[in-house]
Amino acid sequence: MAGRQGPGGGAGDRPGAKRAGLDFPRPLTTVDIVIFTIRLEALHVLLVRRGHGEGEPFPDAFALPGGFVDVARDADLAACARRKLAEKTGVVSPYLEQLGSWGSATRDPRGWSATHAYFALIPASAADAALAADAQWFPLQDDNVKPKLAFDHAEILQAAVQRLRNKVEYTSLPAYLMPEEFTLPELQRTYEVVLDRLLEKSAFRTRMLSADLIEPIAKMRKGPNRPAQLYRLKKKAAPVYFARTFNAPE
Amino acid sequence: MAGRQGPGGGAGDRPGAKRAGLDFPRPLTTVDIVIFTIRLEALHVLLVRRGHGEGEPFPDAFALPGGFVDVARDADLAACARRKLAEKTGVVSPYLEQLGSWGSATRDPRGWSATHAYFALIPASAADAALAADAQWFPLQDDNVKPKLAFDHAEILQAAVQRLRNKVEYTSLPAYLMPEEFTLPELQRTYEVVLDRLLEKSAFRTRMLSADLIEPIAKMRKGPNRPAQLYRLKKKAAPVYFARTFNAPE
DNA sequence: CGAATAGTGTCTTTAAGACACTATGTT
DNA sequence: AACATAGTGTCTTAAAGACACTATTCG
């Protein structure tokens, strides 16, 4: 049987009707990004207001930043995601991870469409530096966001939040939400904001310091009380995976 | 600015040149599945030999089962994956999980293409029952397989193996590789085959039995020695996530 | 009985949880 | 000095690792 033929030429049906051609309808292909940051002690996500030109679905609704893959400009999916991220935030090298893909006949009224969803973590310091005019940060409340989202973006957002919360239990991902220099209590606070749960100081410090992740710098954070040691991410800052989760959620 | 326009209508370029139309080139959209099973104490993956009609890329090479999304038949991506899985193996309700997507200008010589990859676990008992004529099981050796694979399928396969190995450290996924009835030593053996590492019997048993995953049945596995208690997956057999990995790989 | 595998128990180890305690700055 | 937060130490706890020991079947 022929291998990768078009629809209708698949296994079992119309044997012998080999068509190597590509003259069958193709789904729309988009990339969407869930961009997280921490502002005002709360997890925020970036949304974009949609236009209202003719034929635009979900006019004026909020949506995740994203759009069609441009086969002329985008070498691959990750490049497309990075391009869209940079267009909206100016950030060029954030933590970027593929989240999954969503595709169906009905999610876009214009026809069968599939989106490749990514999620990105950017530090608060970069979150407002070069924000696009149509983009806006929204705080997350109970895994959701106030405005009703276009397409199936509420579902995608929910998956992103779940993935983030889940990974924060056993990885160093929150480090990518921090500014260049930060203290351990500040990092712990970020963990706590994402997890919406307090963590044990001593266990947290032991875990972070024994991971090959951060290094102290010759500077302290001054405040009204005892100053705190400042740290920065090590150069080779690959995310660290710990062997256990934090609290075994009983 | 307009929201989800076609390529060229994105942020920043050609302002005012709004085009709500969809008259721009679309990538090819495919779904591929990495199907795992255990045979002869080794992890195997299902491959399909490609055809050699005109215009067929990678003629006669082996590839992951998959193919184009059929916008007329497939309601969504998961349905497309299930269809292709059933076509090749006859299995209708396996463990099926989205793996990720791979898309670029160069992975398919016919043009910009994106594939949505899934991975499935099926029991050995189902692995040969209704195998398609062009499909064949190959053992995994060092995260790879003997034949050179078409497209970027070697990369996808590698990602699938990594994901499986990783998840086996802290989940009950191998249970989906077992036949309906199995003993604890058999389940442990499956874990060991996937991880390519021996596990401690007592820790393994404690973990499995304290999870709400399997239940004993009123039957024993008879053999040349002491018989072993047979178990089956509980009805609500959602995968279990453990709070720790097995051996902390030092 | 001995061989072989199933299954249990006991002690150690690791890393987290609880929480007290010390350290160091500001006002 | 009072206070607030940074940072450490000590004891407990949960679950895994090591490994010996018992249990049950067959030949």
Provide the fold topology:
Two copies of one chain form a homodimer.
Chain A: E1 28-39, E2 42-49, E3 62-63, E4 66-68, H1 77-89, E5 95-104, E6 113-121, H2 124-127, E7 135-139, H3 153-168, E8 182-183, H4 184-195, H5 201-210, E9 214-221, E10 228-233
Parallel strand pairs in A: 1-6
Antiparallel strand pairs in A: 1-2, 1-4, 2-3, 2-7, 5-6, 8-10, 9-10
The first copy, chain A, binds a DNA duplex (27 and 27 nucleotides) through helix 5.
Residues in helix, % of chain A? 10-25%
Radius of gyration of chain A: 22 Å
Can you tell me the CATH class of the largest domain in chain A?
Answer: Alpha Beta
Beta-strand content estimate of chain A: 25-35%
| Mean of residue pLDDT values of chain A | 90
**Main β sheet profile of chain A:** 7 strands, mixed
Give me the CATH superfamily of the largest domain in chain A. Answer: Nucleoside Triphosphate Pyrophosphohydrolase
The CATH topology of the largest domain in chain A: Nucleoside Triphosphate Pyrophosphohydrolase
CATH architecture descriptor text of the largest domain in chain A = Alpha-Beta Complex
> What is the domain tally of chain A?
2
**Beta-strand segment tally of chain A:** 10
